[in-house]
Design goal:
Rossmann fold, six-stranded mixed beta sheet, binds adenosine-5'-triphosphate, binds magnesium ion
Length: 262
């Protein structure tokens, strides 16, 4: 069999209009929110994507998740070119294997559904058995299985984010994209969730793309860290050693974290 990366992104590019009005759209009014971004992610690997606010991280994630269309470049998933796939039917098999948790995932859980219904919904979408799965998934993310009958408003923010992770993991995806998934949580809850993600990652061999503006948080889960600035990749780091960081921007990112670390 061909050795290929789980995910490979080549020269990914996305332009946005600088103006608010759609009518004003013209080349000179647009800027590259993401420009020529290339990286790869192997099966079972945890890769970090870091950079300051506005550097283009979420735009990259949204293109991978097929939520927005790239203006250039290519996305290969499991060796298949998914760049131009569109629509529910074509994306159905891909979506099963790429799941995501966002900063607001916990707060946007459907208040009318029980946690059990929320967690097993993806299984139903794929006509898979749901029996006992909610309880199993709740236990996996460290919540009491009997909470399957509870509703989201009965949970704390950190607990709701765990439910989002349980829902994202229930299909056993080969790739989990976490976009600022711990950014809204206090330091202790964030630490617990990162530990949980490491455990899920190691036990299930799920590849993770971990996105955060905080390089020290990313470093706790990911060996390789891709650093973005102004829509472009400036370098890829293996450690937070200042001697490894070549780019002054990366050095600033590391230094700013060292002064506030625990
Ligand atoms: N739909 C859109 N229309 C126009 N501009 C956009 C749109 N989405 C994002 N942008 C712009 O693209 C740039 C990159 O945004 P993006 O959300 O990818 O940054 P980010 O790195 O995720 O930032 P943060 O750390 O704050 O989440 C920003 O300048 C943003 O204002
Ligand atoms: Mg973002």
């Amino acid at each position: 069999m061909d050795m290929c990366h789980l995910l490979e992104v080549k020269n990914l590019t996305k332009f946005f209009s600088k103006r608010l009005s759609h009518f004003a759209y013209a080349k000179k009014d647009s800027f590259a929110a993401v420009r020529d971004v290339s990286f790869s992610l192997d099966a079972g690997e945890a890769l970090g994507l870091v950079g300051e606010s506005g550097s283009g991280k979420t735009t990259v994630a949204n293109m991978l998740l097929k939520l927005i269309e790239p203006d250039g470049g290519q996305i290969l998933f499991g060796g298949e070119d998914i760049t131009r796939l569109r629509g529910y039917k074509d994306l159905y098999p891909v979506r099963r294997n790429i799941q995501a948790v966002f900063q607001n995932s916990g707060t946007s859980l459907d208040p009318h559904m029980t946690l059990g219904e929320i967690i097993t919904e993806p299984l139903k979408n794929y006509h898979l058995p749901t029996e006992g799965k909610a309880e199993e998934s709740l236990a996996l993310v460290g919540l009491p299985p009997e909470w399957a009958r509870r509703r989201p408003h009965q949970l704390s923010g950190g607990q709701r984010q765990r439910v989002s992770i349980a829902r994202a993991m229930v299909l056993k995806p080969s790739l989990l994209v976490l976009d600022e998934a711990t950014s809204n949580l206090d330091v202790i809850t964030a630490s617990q969730i990162i530990a949980l993600m490491r455990k899920l990652h190691e036990e299930n061999n799920t590849a993770i793309l971990f996105i955060s503006h905080d390089i020290s948080v990313v470093d706790r889960l990911c060996t390789r860290k891709v650093v973005m600035k102004d829509g472009m990749i400036v370098e890829t780091l293996r450690s937070l050693d200042l001697s490894e960081a070549r780019h002054p921007y990366t050095r600033r990112l590391i230094e700013s974290k060292m002064s506030v670390s625990l």
